[in-house]
UniProtKB/TrEMBL annotation, chain A:
Main location: membrane
Compartments where located: Cell inner membrane
Organism, scientific name: Agaribacter marinus
InterPro entries, per database record: AAA+_ATPase, ABC_transp_ATP-bind, ABC_transporter-like_ATP-bd, P-loop_NTPase
Protein name, UniProt field: ABC transporter ATP-binding protein
GO BP of this protein: transmembrane transport
Membrane-protein topology: Peripheral membrane protein
Domain of life: Bacteria
GO terms, molecular function: ATP binding; ATP hydrolysis activity
Family matches, as SUPFAM superfamilies: P-loop containing nucleoside triphosphate hydrolases (SSF52540)
Lineage: Bacteria, Pseudomonadati, Pseudomonadota, Gammaproteobacteria, Alteromonadales
Pfam families to which the protein is assigned, alphabetical: ABC_tran
Keywords assigned by UniProt, alphabetized: ATP-binding, Cell inner membrane, Cell membrane, Membrane, Nucleotide-binding, Transport
UniProtKB/TrEMBL annotation, chain B:
Recorded superkingdom: Bacteria
Gene transcribed to yield this protein: sapD
Identification of the protein by name: ABC transporter ATP-binding protein
Lineage: Bacteria, Pseudomonadati, Pseudomonadota, Gammaproteobacteria, Alteromonadales
Record-level GO cellular component terms: plasma membrane
Native organism: Agaribacter marinus
InterPro entries documented for this protein: AAA+_ATPase, ABC_Ni/Peptide_Import, ABC_transporter-like_ATP-bd, Oligopep_ABC_C, P-loop_NTPase
Membrane topology (UniProt): Peripheral membrane protein
Length: 262, 342
């Protein structure tokens, strides 16, 4: 099986302008390279400020990378990327225009990226809404009328509507409550199964990472310090940072079982 | 005696043309030196309980309760001044989202100095007082595990990372050496290493200072690792409450079970990529609360009796309110369980 996504040595420097006399603060991402097979799930973990979100943005094309290249299904990085890689933002609720109905938000995405006419767009939107477990009627709803879980589903619908091959998600589960989180995890697993999506996501929740990802990338200070099969990384972490992350998690889980069975 | 006791707290929110029961007959006790977790999803009224304890209640809310007592003294009958004294010295709160709870226009140093009560300053001369305050501030920062205090004291809140501001919030709460610490969702959105640090910190204060902690969160991993007892809240109703150990071992309420099952870390034999157990639907909004047991529409074993509010029952300090509890020895049902008198 060939890679659908090939990231080769991408680099990016983020500069935050300092105050009057203070120095500019810079953050350097990269060089980062990894590749991804069709239908694979990759999790990116790491501490705050390790460049995870920047990497996600770079993948989705929201940043202009300075060096390196991102190849999609062996195609050169180009305009079709916007249809192949779609992104779900960290706070999906804030990413919708409150003044537009869900239908017009989704329709906008289609209008800008495809040549479908009004009726075809309508059809496509309804189909996608049903696909993510919402109703056709949600077409006419506004953001504030939906619950957290439903908003997350709309965010997923917006990502799916262009039939992408890869979805990049920045902390898709962080803001959700436990029961809704499990629902979303189930939904993503189901969609992946049906559509063969590649899924790249950032998460702090080691439990979920362990459950759904095939491979893990551990990032620190803008570079990938460790990557490998989820099981291998978690059972035999090689770097100190990974060991700390895993240890912290397993300690908490162990305490849980001590409480339960002691 | 219980340090903090809440009995049948009902909170009404006046939303223009209708009144909503945002909390319905909530019970909660916090004993001395105990860590109690208050668990519930967003919209279940956790923060409302915290605000009811604090007395930070807007005009369109009203409270009805059998009692809310602190060390046997009723908080509801107190004057504003007395209550403020207690809140100032005995009960401290660490609010949600430290970044927004800190004053963005004041330096960290000044904010912590302000939170130290005047009684702790023993020096007579103003310049010496100021120096003493500064020393106490540094001391506090060291106690919460910030070693290089110089790095953060002169900063404004936006310049410091979230986990440090969380620690600073804890430092400010501990400045008055309280008896109770209420931590409102302190570990939200933290990665596991930082989370463990904060939990260890709270646990340390609990062990060394006998600090009672009300830990409000929906992070089950954090809760089960340190809390002694927990109260599970759903939609403004207490569904189950008791020792963490017995709740984990045998949850009696379907909601508690669903909550525990939803965390993949707790399932040892769960194959990767398999479906997680979860309840259908989402938590209803305050405008559309179901009658009776509020879990009703989402509950897997709901029957027609569930339109009535279940009476809370108690077995060995394990309180639950459900008509059809899980794991119930059938033949002993009527002998063992005694109804709690309301």
């Amino acid at each position: 099986m060939s890679a659908i996504l090939d990231v080769k040595n991408i680099e990016y420097t983020y500069i935050q302008k300092g105050k009057l006399f203070a120095k500019d603060q810079t953050f350097h991402l990269g060089p980062v390279s990894f590749s991804m097979q069709a239908g694979e799930t990759i999790a990116i973990v790491g501490n705050n400020g390790s460049g995870k979100s920047l990497l996600a943005k770079a993948l989705a094309g929201a940043l202009n990378i300075e060096k390196g290249e991102i190849l999609i299904a062996n195609k050169e990085d180009g305009r079709e990327r916007h249809n192949t890689i779609r992104m779900i933002l960290q706070h999906s609720a804030d990413a919708f225009n409150p003044a537009l109905s869900i239908g017009s938000i989704l329709s906008q995405t289609l209008r800008l990226n495809t040549d479908l006419n009004e009726n075809q767009r309508r059809e496509k939107i309804e189909e996608t809404l049903v696909n993510v477990g919402l109703l056709r009627e949600h077409f006419h709803f506004y953001r504030h009328m939906l619950s957290d879980g439903q908003q997350q589903r709309v965010a997923l619908a917006r990502a799916l509507i262009l039939d992408p091959e890869i979805i990049v998600a920045d902390e898709p589960f962080a803001a959700l409550d436990p029961s809704v989180r499990s629902q979303t995890v189930n939904l993503i697993l189901k969609l992946q199964d049906e559509l063969g999506l590649g899924f790249v996501f950032i998460s702090h929740n080691i439990g979920i990472v362990r459950h759904i990802s095939d491979r893990v990338l551990v990032m620190d200070k803008g570079v990938i310090i460790e990557q490998g099969k989820t099981h291998d990384v978690f059972t035999h972490p090689r770097t100190i940072l990974t060991q700390k992350l895993v240890q912290a998690h397993t300690n908490l889980v162990e305490k849980h079982f001590v409480q339960k069975y002691a | 005696m219980a340090l903090l006791e809440i009995k049948n707290l009902t909170l009404f929110i006046d939303a223009g043309d209708e009144t909503v029961k945002a909390l319905e007959k909530v019970n909660l006790t916090l004993n001395e030196g105990e860590i109690r977790a208050l668990v519930g999803e967003s919209g279940s009224g956790k923060t409302l309980i915290v605000r009811a304890i604090l007395g930070a209640i807007p005009d369109n809310w009203s409270i009805k309760a059998d009692r809310i007592t602190y060390q046997g003294k009723s908080l509801l009958d107190m004057s504003g001044e007395q209550r403020r004294q207690i809140m100032r010295r005995e009960i401290a709160v660490v609010f949600q989202e430290p970044a927004s709870a800190l004053d963005p226009s004041v330096k960290i140093k000044e904010q912590i100095k302000e939170s130290i009560p005047d009684e702790f300053i023993t020096k007579a001369w103003p310049w010496k007082q100021n120096k003493q305050r500064e020393e106490l501030t540094v001391n506090l920062l060291h106690r919460v595990g910030i070693k290089n205090h110089k790095r953060y004291m002169e900063c404004y809140p936006h310049e410091i990372p979230t986990d440090i501001s969380q620690k600073i919030m804890i430092a400010m709460a501990l400045a008055s050496e309280p008896k109770i610490l209420i931590a409102d969702d302190s570990t939200r959105g933290m990665e596991s290493a930082t989370k463990t640090q904060i939990l260890r910190l709270l646990l340390k204060f609990n062990e060394t200072k006998k600090l009672a902690i009300l830990f409000v969160s929906h992070d089950l991993l954090a809760i089960t690792s340190m809390a002694h007892s927990m109260t599970v809240l759903y939609c403004g109703q207490t569904v189950e409450s008791g020792k963490v150990k017995s709740l984990l071992k045998r949850p009696l309420h379907p909601y508690t079970k669903a909550l525990l099952d939803s965390a993949p870390s707790f399932q040892v034999s769960l194959p990767p990529k398999s479906k997680l157990v979860t309840l259908e639907g989402t938590i209803p909004t305050l405008q559309h609360l179901p009658t009776g047991c509020r879990l009703g529409p989402r509950c897997p074993n709901a029957r027609k009796e569930c339109v009535m509010v279940p009476v809370p029952r108690n077995i060995q300090d394990h309180l639950y309110s459900c008509h059809f509890p899980l794991h119930l020895p059938k033949n002993t049902k009527h002998k063992v369980y005694k109804e709690v008198k309301l």
